[in-house]
Specification:
Blueprint lengths: L1 E7 L3 H10 L7 E8 L2 E8 L2 H28 L6
Antiparallel strand pairs: 1-3, 2-3
Length: 82
């Protein structure tokens, strides 16, 4: 079983930063990730549905944390009063 998650970022630099922060260890699933232009592409392959679901859920949770961190960083660039 296999799933692919593609996430568009505002710039290639942010997509590469997200890739760098993304955890590719997958336990019972194989995870491959890469960036093309401003798109982070994550491919997850597992032997069964339960493993695929678990790793996909973890990947989405990781992406949410990365997204929140990038938004926070973007907000801090304007200074503390931004």
């Amino acid at each position: 079983m296999r799933t692919v998650v593609e996430v568009d970022f505002p710039s290639p630099e942010l997509a590469r930063a997200a890739l760098k922060a993304f955890e590719t260890r997958g336990g019972k699933a194989e995870v491959n990730a890469g960036v093309e232009k401003n798109v982070l592409r994550i491919e997850i392959t597992a032997g069964g549905f339960s493993a695929l679901r678990a790793r996909t859920t973890s990947a989405l949770r990781d992406l949410k944390i990365i997204s929140d961190a990038l938004e926070l960083k973007k907000g801090l660039k304007g200074g503390l009063n931004a």
